[in-house]
C-alpha cells in the first residue's frame, strides 16, 4: 500500500499476470506480492480477489495460514531468530537481547523508525550453527551477541528501496560475511558422497524401460528417507499403475522437522544427484512435470538451484526429448512454502502446491492415486531421489551392500546439540547411537532425541540401539542433550512447537496440543500433583489416538517419551497435595499488588 | 441386496453398504449410530471433529471419511473410543465460550446433545476463554463465534451447495476462526437466510433472527430424545 492508503494494483496485476491468473498458483502470486509489498494486508487480498475473480474468503483462507506471510507492514529488515531447544542451549536468548538493544525493537515488534522487526521463529534448518537467524530471508548462522551491533549498523545503512523487504528471497546478502552459511559435511559416506560422478544414473535409466527402473528400485529395497520409510519402489509402482493422462513427481524439500538440515546439504552439494533422481522417477512414472517444494526458510538456495535447472535444460537433461529419447519430456519448477511445518506432510504439501492452506487430506485416496491437481503423484524426500539415482547408477546389489536386512543403504543424519562436532553425517543403516555419539564427540549425553520432536527420546541405557527402520527410524534429525539439560523443559519446548504448528483442522490436535503445553507447564513450575501427571498422560494418549494426521498423532511423543525414560524427573517436581490450582494465589496477589499498588486482602496460600 | 452391495461388520452387527458409501453413511442407512459433529449427510465429509473415530480393520480412522469396503470390521462402541469422544467434546467446550443456559440453540444443539449422550456433566479441561467476534450486521442472520466449533459445515455448504463461498477459515491452530467473505461484515455479502449455509450449523453460531425461542426450551429436539435415537433427525440444523 502506498502512503495514501491506495492499493498497489500494478503490483497485484503484475503478479497475477506472471502466473497466468491461475488459481492453483495462488502461493506464487501471494509470494510475489509479498516480496514487493512486504506484507499482505486486507485491502491487498480484496484487490487480488477482484483480479483473480475468486472469493476473498478463499484467498484469506490460504494467506492467513502461513507464518511467513506478514499481515501488516514490518520493518525494512525482518529478523527471525530460531527459538529451539538447541538454539537456546547455544545462547539464542542472549543474541535476542542483543538485537533488542541494537535495533530498539521488542520481540514481536518493530523499531520506532521502521527499520527493524524482530520475531522468534521455529527451527530454520541451521541447528548445527545456532544461534541462527534469517534476515529478509538471508541466513545468519552462528551468531554471537557481540556480532549484533555491527550487523545492525550495516543493515541500517542499506538504503536499497527496490523492495519493501530488500534481499528477500534468494539473496545471499553477500555484503555481510555472516550470511554465508557453511555446510558441515563431517562424515561423507559411501552412497551419496562416495564419488564425484553424476549424470551416470540418468544415462543408465534412459537405456532401461520404465518398468525396469521400478524393478531395480524395488530390488534395492529403497525406503523413503523423509521419515515414514515407505518402500519407494512400491510407491512408484502404485503411481505408475494408476490410470491417468499424466502424473507428477514432487520433491519434498520442506525439511521442517526441527534439527534436520541434511536436505539443505544435499541440495547445496549434490543438486545434480537429486535432479537426476527426479528425472529418473519421471521416466519411470511417465511424468511430464516435477516440482520441488522448498521451505521458505531455504529461499536463499533458489538462485543456485535455478542455475542448476537452467544448466540441465541447456544440456538436454530437462525439457523435450531428454537425452535424445523420443517423447521423454520433463521439466521441474521450484515452489516455495511459506513457514508451515505441516506442509512437509505430503498431502498438506499438495494442498499448498495447489494454492491452498496446508491442511492434510483425508486418505484414501492416496497421492499415488489422486495427488497434485487430482493426478497420480509420487512425493518423495530429497534424499530418496538422490538414493534412487545412485541405485540406478551403481545397481541394486551394490546399494544393498550397505545397511541392514530391512534398511538398505546409508542415512544422512543432521546431528546437533551438546557435541563438539555437529554437522551432516552419512552413515550406513545399523549404526548404533554409541558409535554415532563417538563420532560427534558427545561424551556425556543424557538423552538423544532421534527423529526430531515427533521422534523418540532415547536415554543412555538404550545407546546400543541402531539407526534403522526396524529399530530407531529417523528422517535425519539427531539432537544430543547433555547431563545439564532439563528433560521436562525440553519436552515443553517441543510441545510448544507442535501447538504453534498445528494446522487447526481437527479438534484433538488444535486444542489438545495447547492443553498439553499448559498442563506440562504446570508440572514444570512445580504446581503439579500425581493426579496431574496421570491426567496429562491420559490426555496425551487421546490426542495421539484421535488426531487426523501424523502431526497430532506424534505431538504427544515428547511428553510420553520423557515420562517413560525419565519418571524421576517428573517425580522430582511433584507436590504431595491431591490438588493444586494452576496458579498460586499468593503470586497472583503479589502481581496484582505490583500493578495496582494493593493486593487482595487476607489471602493465604492456595 | 443388489450386486453392488456388500457387508461390513460394525460392533459385531452385519451392516449392508454400497460402493462409494462411507462407513458413517452405511451405518446411518442401517440405523446404527456413530457419534459425529462435523459430518452432514448433504455435504462432503471433512474429518474435523474426530468424534466418529473408530477402529476400522484394527486402525483408528474417521468413519465419516472412510469409504466402506467389503468385509471391513468396524469397532465404534467401546470404553476407549467413548472416552476419547468425551475428551474431544470437552476440548470443544473449553475452546469456545459456551453458556448453555442463555444460548438460543440449547436443546437443539448437537454439541450439547452429544455431551449429554456421552455423559459429560462438566468440562474437566482448562478453559481457554478466547476472544471471539460476533457479527449482527445482517438483517436476518446473527453470527456468534463464541460457540463456533470450526466444523466447516457452513463453509462447505456455502461453497459447494450455495455456490457463494461466503465463509472460510482464517489463521491456524488454536487461533483459527470462521472468516467472512468481506472486508468488514456479513451484511456486505450476498448471504441469505434461505442459504444452505444458514441451516447447517450444529451449534449456536449461525442463528436466524426473529426465530429465537419459538420452540420453548424443554420441547426441543434433544429434550425429547438423546441425539442418535432417531438418525434422520440427527443433524437438526434447520431452525424451523
Ligand atoms: C507433520 C509431518 C511433517 C513432515 N515433514 C516432512 C518433511 O519436511 N520432509 C519430508 O521429506 N517428509 C516429511 N514428512 C513425511 C511425508 O509426509 C512423506 O511421508 C514423505 O515426503 C514421503 O517421502 P519419502 O517416502 O521419500 O520419505 C512429514 C510428515 C508429517 C506427518
Ligand atoms: S492432526 Fe493437527 S496438523 Fe494434522 S490435521 Fe489435525 S490439526 Fe491439522
Ligand atoms: S452452542 Fe450448544 S453447547 Fe454451546 S452454549 Fe449453545 S447450546 Fe450450549
Ligand atoms: S459457524 Fe457453525 S457451521 Fe460454521 S464452522 Fe462454525 S460451528 Fe460449524
Ligand atoms: S464426524 Fe467424522 S470427523 Fe467429524
- Any low-confidence stretches of chain A, pLDDT <50, length ≥5? 168-178
Largest interface: A-B, 42 and 44 residues
**Strand-residue proportion of chain A:** 5-15%
**Average pLDDT of chain B:** 93
How many helix segments of chain B? Answer: 5
Full CATH superfamily name of the largest domain in chain A: NADH-ubiquinone oxidoreductase 51kDa subunit
Percent helix range of chain A: 40-55%
Q: Could you explain how this protein is built, in words?
A:
- The complex is a heterodimer of chains A (606) and B (240).
- With 606 residues, chain A is of the alpha/beta class.
- Chain A folds into five domains: 9-63, no CATH class; 77-160, Glutaredoxin (3-Layer(aba) Sandwich); 187-400, NADH-ubiquinone oxidoreductase 51kDa subunit (Rossmann fold), CATH 3.40.50; 410-482, Roll (Ubiquitin-like (UB roll)), CATH 3.10.20; 487-571, NADH-ubiquinone oxidoreductase 51kDa subunit, iron-sulphur binding domain (de novo design (two linked rop proteins), Up-down Bundle).
- In chain A, 41% of the residues lie in helices and 13% in strands.
- Chain A has helices at residues 9-18, 26-37, 42-52, 56-63, 85-89, 92-103, 145-157, 200-207, 210-219, 232-241, 262-269, 271-285, 302-314, 346-353, 382-394, 396-400, 433-440, 487-501, 507-524, 530-546, 550-554, 557-565, 567-571, 585-596; strands at residues 77-82, 116-121, 133-135, 138-140, 185-187, 247-253, 287-294, 331-336, 377-381, 410-417, 423-428, 445-450, 456-459, 477-482.
- In chain A, the strands form three sheets. Chain A has a six-stranded mixed β-sheet with strand order 5-11-10-14-12-13.
- In chain A, a hairpin with a 2-residue loop joins strand 3 (133-135) and strand 4 (138-140).
- In chain A, helix 8 (200-207) packs parallel to helix 12.
- The longest helix of chain A is centred in the last third of the chain and has 18 residues, at 507-524.
- Chain A is globular, with a radius of gyration of 25 Å.
- The model of chain A is unreliable at 168-178 (pLDDT under 50).
- With 240 residues, chain B is of the alpha+beta class.
- Chain B has two domains: 5-77, Ubiquitin-like (UB roll); 86-224, Alpha-Beta Plaits (2-Layer Sandwich).
- Helices cover 19% and strands 16% of the residues of chain B.
- Chain B has helices at residues 23-30, 79-95, 110-117, 153-161, 221-224; strands at 6-10, 13-17, 53-56, 59-62, 73-75, 134-135, 141-144, 167-170, 177-180, 206-208.
- In chain B, a hairpin with a 5-residue loop joins strand 6 and strand 7 (141-144).
- Chain B starts with 5 loop residues before the first strand and ends in a 16-residue tail after the last helix.
- The complex binds flavin mononucleotide (FMN), iron/sulfur cluster (3 copies) and FE2/S2 (inorganic) cluster.
Amino acid at each position: 500500500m502506498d502512503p495514501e492508503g491506495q492499493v498497489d494494483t500494478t503490483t497485484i496485476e503484475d503478479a497475477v499476470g506472471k502466473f497466468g491468473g491461475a488459481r492453483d498458483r495462488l502461493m506464487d502470486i501471494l509470494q510475489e506480492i509479498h516480496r514487493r509489498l512486504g506484507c499482505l494486508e486486507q485491502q491487498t487480498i480484496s484487490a487480488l480477489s477482484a483480479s483473480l475473480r475468486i472469493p476473498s474468503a478463499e484467498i484469506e483462507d490460504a494467506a492467513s495460514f502461513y507464518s511467513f506471510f506478514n499481515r501488516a507492514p514490518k520493518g525494512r529488515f525482518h529478523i527471525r531468530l530460531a527459538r529451539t531447544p538447541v538454539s537456546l542451549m547455544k545462547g539464542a536468548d542472549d543474541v535476542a537481547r542483543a538485537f533488542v538493544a541494537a535495533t530498539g525493537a521488542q520481540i514481536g515488534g518493530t523499531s520506532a523508525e521502521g527499520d527493524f522487526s524482530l520475531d522468534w521463529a521455529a527451527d530454520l534448518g541451521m541447528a548445527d550453527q545456532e544461534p541462527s537467524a534469517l534476515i529478509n530471508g538471508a541466513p545468519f548462522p552462528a551468531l554471537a551477541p557481540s556480532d549484533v551491533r555491527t550487523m545492525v549498523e550495516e543493515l541500517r545503512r542499506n538504503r536499497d528501496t527496490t523492495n519493501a523487504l530488500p534481499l528477500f528471497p534468494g539473496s545471499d546478502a553477500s555484503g555481510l560475511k555472516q550470511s554465508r552459511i557453511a555446510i558441515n559435511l563431517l562424515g561423507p559416506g559411501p552412497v551419496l558422497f562416495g564419488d564425484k560422478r553424476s549424470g551416470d544414473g540418468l544415462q543408465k535409466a534412459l537405456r532401461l524401460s520404465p518398468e525396469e527402473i521400478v524393478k531395480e528400485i524395488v530390488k534395492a529395497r529403497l525406503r523413503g528417507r523423509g521419515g515414514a520409510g515407505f518402500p519407494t519402489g512400491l510407491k512408484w509402482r502404485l503411481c505408475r499403475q494408476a490410470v491417468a493422462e499424466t502424473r507428477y513427481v514432487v520433491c519434498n524439500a520442506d525439511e521442517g522437522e526441527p534439527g534436520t538440515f541434511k536436505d539443505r546439504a544435499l541440495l547445496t552439494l549434490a543438486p545434480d544427484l537429486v535432479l537426476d533422481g527426479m528425472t529418473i522417477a519421471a521416466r519411470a512414472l511417465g511424468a511430464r512435470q516435477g516440482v520441488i517444494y522448498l521451505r521458505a526458510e531455504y529461499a536463499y538456495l533458489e538462485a543456485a538451484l535455478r542455475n542448476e535447472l537452467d544448466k540441465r535444460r541447456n544440456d538436454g537433461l530437462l525439457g523435450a526429448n531428454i537425452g535424445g529419447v523420443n517423447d521423454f519430456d520433463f521439466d521441474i519448477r521450484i515452489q516455495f512454502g511459506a513457514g508451515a511445518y505441516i506442509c512437509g506432510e505430503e498431502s498438506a504439501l499438495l494442498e499448498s502446491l495447489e494454492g491452498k492452506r496446508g491442511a492434510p487430506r483425508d486418505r484414501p485416496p492416496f497421492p499415488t492415486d489422486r495427488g497434485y491437481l487430482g493426478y497420480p503423484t509420487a512425493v518423495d524426500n530429497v534424499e530418496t531421489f538422490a538414493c534412487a539415482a545412485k541405485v540406478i547408477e551403481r545397481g541394486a546389489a551394490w546399494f544393498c551392500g550397505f545397511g541392514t536386512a530391512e534398511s538398505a543403504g546409508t542415512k544422512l543424519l543432521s546431528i546437533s546439540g551438546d557435541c563438539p562436532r555437529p554437522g551432516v553425517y552419512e552413515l550406513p543403516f545399523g549404526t548404533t547411537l554409541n558409535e554415532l555419539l563417538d563420532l560427534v564427540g558427545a561424551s556425556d549425553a543424557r538423552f538423544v532425541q532421534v527423529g526430531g520432536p515427533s521422534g523418540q527420546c532415547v536415554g543412555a541405557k538404550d545407546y546400543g540401539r541402531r539407526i534403522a527402520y526396524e529399530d530407531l527410524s529417523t528422517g535425519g534429525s539427531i539432537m544430543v542433550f547433555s547431563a545439564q539439560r532439563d528433560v521436562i523443559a525440553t519436552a515443553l519446548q517441543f510441545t510448544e512447537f507442535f501447538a504453534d504448528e498445528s494446522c487447526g483442522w481437527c479438534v484433538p490436535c488444535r486444542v489438545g496440543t495447547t492443553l498439553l503445553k499448559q498442563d506440562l507447564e504446570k508440572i514444570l513450575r512445580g504446581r503439579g500433583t500425581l493426579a496431574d501427571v496421570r491426567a496429562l498422560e491420559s490426555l496425551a494418549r487421546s490426542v495421539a489416538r484421535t488426531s487426523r494426521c501424523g502431526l497430532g498423532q506424534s505431538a504427544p511423543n515428547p511428553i510420553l517419551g520423557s515420562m517413560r525414560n525419565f519418571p524421576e524427573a517428573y517425580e522430582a517436581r511433584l507436590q504431595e497435595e491431591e490438588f493444586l490450582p494452576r496458579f498460586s494465589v499468593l503470586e497472583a496477589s503479589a502481581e496484582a499488588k505490583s500493578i495496582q499498588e494493593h493486593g487482595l486482602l487476607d489471602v493465604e496460600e492456595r | 441386496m443388489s450386486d453392488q452391495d456388500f457387508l461390513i461388520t460394525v460392533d459385531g452387527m452385519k451392516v449392508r453398504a454400497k460402493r462409494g458409501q462411507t462407513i458413517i453413511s452405511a451405518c446411518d442407512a442401517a440405523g446404527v449410530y456413530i457419534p459425529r459433529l462435523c459430518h452432514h449427510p448433504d455435504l462432503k465429509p471433512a474429518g474435523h471433529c474426530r468424534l466418529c473415530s473408530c477402529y476400522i480393520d484394527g486402525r483408528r480412522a474417521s468413519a465419516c471419511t472412510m469409504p466402506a469396503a467389503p468385509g471391513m470390521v468396524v469397532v465404534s462402541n467401546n470404553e476407549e473410543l467413548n472416552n476419547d469422544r468425551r475428551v474431544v467434546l470437552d476440548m470443544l467446550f473449553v475452546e469456545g465460550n459456551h453458556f448453555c443456559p442463555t444460548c438460543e440453540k440449547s436443546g437443539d444443539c448437537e454439541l450439547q446433545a452429544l455431551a449429554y449422550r456421552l455423559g459429560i456433566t462438566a468440562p474437566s479441561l482448562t478453559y481457554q476463554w478466547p476472544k471471539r467476534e460476533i457479527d449482527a450486521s445482517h438483517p436476518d442472520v446473527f453470527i456468534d463465534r463464541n460457540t463456533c466449533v470450526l466444523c466447516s459445515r457452513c463453509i462447505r455448504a456455502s461453497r459447494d451447495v450455495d455456490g457463494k463461498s461466503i465463509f472460510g477459515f482464517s489463521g491456524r491452530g488454536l487461533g483459527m476462526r470462521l472468516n467472512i467473505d468481506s472486508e468488514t461484515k456479513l451484511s456486505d455479502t450476498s448471504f441469505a437466510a434461505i442459504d444452505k449455509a444458514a441451516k447447517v450449523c450444529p451449534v449456536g453460531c449461525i442463528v436466524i433472527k426473529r426465530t429465537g425461542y419459538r420452540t420453548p426450551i424443554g420441547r426441543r429436539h434433544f429434550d425429547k430424545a438423546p441425539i442418535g435415537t432417531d438418525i434422520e433427525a440427527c443433524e437438526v440444523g434447520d431452525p424451523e
